[in-house]
Amino acid sequence: MCKTNCTRICSPSDFFPNVKGNLTKIVWAHAVNSQAKLEKALSSGDVMMLEADVVMGKLNNTNNTSEIPIMAHPPNTESDLSLEEFLNITNTNGSKGIKLDFKTNDAFNNSKSILKKWQPILKRPVFLNADILSGPVNATLPLVGKEFIKEANDIIPDAILSIGWTTRYGKEFNITKGRYSAEQLKKMVDTVAESRVTQPVTYPVRAGLAVNDIDAMKALLKNTKNATLTIWSAEGDSVDPAKLSKLIKEVDIDKVYVDVPNDLRSKLNLSGASAMTPAVMMTLGASMALLVLSRML
Questions:
Q1: What backbone torsions phi and psi does residue 131 show, to the nearest 5 degrees?
Q2: CA nearest 248: which of 270, 267, 232?
Q3: N or C end of the chain: smaller count of CB under 10 Å?
Q4: Of 99, 94, 62, residue with least CA distance to 83
Q5: What angle do CA 183, 140, 24 make, to 5 degrees?
Q6: Would the pTM count as exceeding 0.85?
Q7: pLDDT for 173-206, tens place per residue?
Q8: How many helices (H) and strands (E) does the chain have?
Q9: For residue 230, what are the β-bridge partners?
Q10: What is the distance between the alpha carbons of residues 235 and 248, in angstroms, rounded to a whole number?
Q11: In this structure, are residues 36 and 26 in contact, taking their beta carbons and an 8 Å threshold?
Q12: How far is residue 4's CA from residue 16's CA, in Å, rounded to a whole number?
């Protein structure tokens, strides 16, 4: 399934050549924040990418009471899996990519030395994620600053930079309507431009919000060099599968990662969509050139 001879951090398309440029085929395990969930995800033949959350907290079953970077989702501050252990175990397995979602500045700052140590060893896809701007619907202020962009690039320059917006949506808030505003999207594009980002960028967008303005999502990518979307959804979110399928097709399957619950994924209709891989583009270009030449003769 994967290409294990990468000499450094590599792209998901290179690491998983069987997807043939179709990023929607990449299968994610979400919230891999415990030893049990990590073991289950690593033993799965389907799972390709491991998404896990990083907070400051206490490691269970130890005498150490000090806080360290652990794998847990707020409000949890205890776990049986530290960031160091997560990286060690996944590196030993070698067949999965990883996405680290930093929930606070403190969690990221205390993880820097760990990430620097592991950077030369992580020969797989690596996403570094944080919500750095406020988003819909009247969402809270982010707990990670825009400085995350530069510091993530300095620590692991080959990683995919995953930067998004806080959201206030779903059954937790009883909110089923909303969208990313033009102002919110422009602020992100401007932030990336001002930060002079050189590494690949993916924008994590919440499915139930993103489907309500497909043109805005396409413009977001058009205005950012070498960018993709990571469409995600929480359990219980109100998402129209037909609208989500349309969004993915219009953006194109070579530019969209799909990290949604299995029941939603199973309802997507992506038939007819095609990834424009470099080989396909070269073939199409050659065919067009021959067509033009034939009409000139």
A1: -85, 115
A2: 270
A3: C
A4: 99
A5: 70
A6: yes
A7: 999 999 999 999 999 999 999 999 999 999 999 9
A8: 11, 10
A9: 204, 257
A10: 20
A11: no
A12: 9
